Amino acid sequence: MGDSITKIQNQLNEYFQSLSKKQKILIGVGSLFLVLTLALSILYITKPKYVTLYNGLSLDESGKITQKLEEMNIQYRAENGGTSISVPKENLNKARMNLAIEGFPSKGITWEDAFNSNTLTMTNDDKRKKYLQAKMNQLARTIEEINGIEKAHVLLTVPDNSDFLTEEIKQSKASVLLTFKHGFKLSEQEVNGIVMLVANAVEGLEMNNISIHDNTGRMLNEGGIDDDGYSLDKKFDMQQEVTKGLEKSLKKFLAKIYGNDNVDIMVNVNLDFDREITDIKEYSSPVEGETSGLIRSMQELKEEVVNGTEGGPPGTDSNSDSITEYKEIDSNNSKFSKENKSVNYELNEIRRNIVKETGSVKNITVAIILNKKTLENGELTDEHKARLIKLVSAAAGLETKMVEVMARDFTDSQQDNLLAISSEENTSILNNIPVISIGVIALLVIIGSIIAVVRIRRRKNEVSEMLDNSADDFDEDIEEIDIDLNDKSSYKYQIDKFVDKKPELVAQLLRTWLNED
Questions:
Q1: Phi and psi at residue 19, in whole multiples of 5°?
Q2: What is the distance between the terminal CA atoms of the chain, rounded to a whole angstrom?
Q3: How many helices (H) and strands (E) does the chain have?
Q4: Residue, of 212 and 485, whose pLDDT is higher
Q5: 3-state class percentages of the chain: helix first, strand second, coil last, to nearest 5
Q6: CATH classification of 110-227, choosing from 3.30.365.10, 3.10.20.30, 3.30.300.30, 1.10.150.130?
Q7: Which of 305, 323, 333, 327 minimizes the C-alpha distance to 314?
Q8: Residue 405 contacts by C-beta under 8 Å, 6 or more apart in sequence?
Q9: CA dihedral sign of residues 338, 342, 343, 347
Q10: Any idea which architecture 48-107 has in CATH?
Q11: 222-232 pLDDT, tens per residue?
Q12: What is the DSSP string of 343-407?
């Protein structure tokens, strides 16, 4: 056996030595290529095939799932920025069952799950249920992206109206349950935004069939929303805002004429929230001044026949033996002519789509009461009334439906009420009076203290000079001084009064003098 192997090796060496250099290179390259191909084939065959486990995950949930896969010693790959997770195909079912026990994924079926799990045995009803479940989960994930919302659950009821046997069409409905972060609360505008989001995502779902609830069960869109996105509360607030603004403007305007305490106004504004869309199609000539357009095509047909016969004999053949006879006329001088002309014109076509703005002012009614005391002779004449109505209609700036004017004697209580209403406009100024008063008093105290200090120092200097000159003369002068304690203009009276009112400040001044000495 060993001799046979040695013999084969020798033959191969002799054969290889007999080859040229070029042949040896080709054999080496071919052998290397064959080895690499074989190795790559084995690697590809033995390489595990990865399939998608879950898709569309949040980063937080993706991290929790990968942690569980590591605990189960299952290899995985994170794709699409961590929102998708893939595992080897042979470990797919094991991973899903173990993760389902742990409650993953929390959002249930995704769009990928709904479409990838379709089989030939699945009915249309099963496919519809999976599609609806995927849509609910997608809406919940979208709502959770809103700031302040920790968790969202969406429930959809979409009836199947494809049954031609039933004429009744059932409406779709939706409920949304929200869990907020600590201390967070949605505004009315944000709640209406969620309602619009759900309504636009589900075909045939009207906004008044959507309910939004918090985790306590309280309904957040209780006022209801119409097709234009306005709740009843929002409509009322808008109407009140326009009414109060117009009342304030008209009252301020008329107060310049009659006085603020002699006029009272009440305004009723009706807003139009109906949505109206108008489509207008207009045609016009492209040539200015012409009634017809440019000629696009024209067809003209003329036909003329001279001394010809037209048609056959009238009537039908007779069934009897006798032959029906008809009178004939001489057609030697007959003439027939026919003319047809068809012209197609090119016109300009203008299409307009006009959408009326919702919430516009529909009509306004104004009621005005004037104090008779401000009127000439205490009477409201028809001419004065007509001018006032015209003035108010123009001041409103819109089409005023009705203006009523009345003149009455204002009682004291009515004028007091008007004064109270007008005083509210000056509340902000009156609230600042205490602050201003405190500042002025503090400034006066400081100025008075400075003046007192200057006077006391000046008096001290005068006393010192008198002591230096002569003690005897000083004693005589002291005896001759007659101090009138009741003289309010004297220095002593002012100092005593200042000491009584500001003893702390005087003590501080004395401490300052002692420190200076």
A1: -75, 155
A2: 132
A3: 15, 13
A4: 212
A5: 50, 20, 30
A6: 3.30.300.30
A7: 327
A8: 368, 370, 380, 385, 388, 389
A9: positive
A10: 2-Layer Sandwich (3.30)
A11: 765 555 556 66
A12: EEEE-EEEEEEEEPPTTEEEEEEEEEEEEGGGSGGG---HHHHHHHHHHHHHHH-S-EEEEEEEE
Distance CA 242, CA 272 (A): 12
- Site of tokens 């191969």: 12
Contact (Cβ atoms closer than 8 angstroms) between residue 407 and residue 264: no
Q: What's the rounded Cα separation, in Å, for the pair 179 and 219? A: 13
Q: Say which residues have a Cβ less than 8 Å from residue 139's Cβ, sequence separation at least 6.
A: 152, 154, 156, 197, 198, 201
Architecture of domain 237-274+357-413: 2-Layer Sandwich (3.30)
Give all strands (DSSP E) within 36-136, no chain letters. Answer: 50-54, 77-79, 84-88
| Residue 74, CA atoms < 13 Å, CB-side half-sphere | 27
- In whole angstroms, give the CA distance from residue 210 to residue 231: 13
Q: Please name which of 198, 184, 115, 102 lies closest in space to residue 153, comparing C-alpha atoms.
A: 198
- State how far the alpha carbon of 335 is from the alpha carbons of 301, 303, 306, 309, 332, in Å: 17, 11, 4, 10, 9
Q: Which of 143, 153, 228 is nearest to 186 (CA)?
A: 143
Cβ atoms 253, 279 nearer than 8 A: no
Using an 8 Å Cβ cutoff, are 202 and 132 in contact? no
pLDDT band at 386 (very low <50, low <70, confident <90, very high): confident
Distance CA 449, CA 443 (A): 10
How many CB atoms sit inside 10 A of residue 35's CB?
A: 10
Q: pLDDT tens for residues 410-452?
A: 775 555 554 444 544 455 455 555 666 676 677 777 787 788 7
Strand 400-408 with 360-371, pairing:
parallel
Beta carbons within 10 angstroms of residue 198's beta carbon = 22
Nearest to 457 by CA among 484, 427, 495: 495
* φ/ψ (deg, to 5) at 343: -125, 130
Q: Is the peptide bond before 105 cis (omega within 30 degrees of 0)?
A: yes
483 band by pLDDT with thresholds 50, 70 and 90? very low
C-alpha atoms less than 13 angstroms from C-alpha of 403 in its C-beta half-sphere: 19
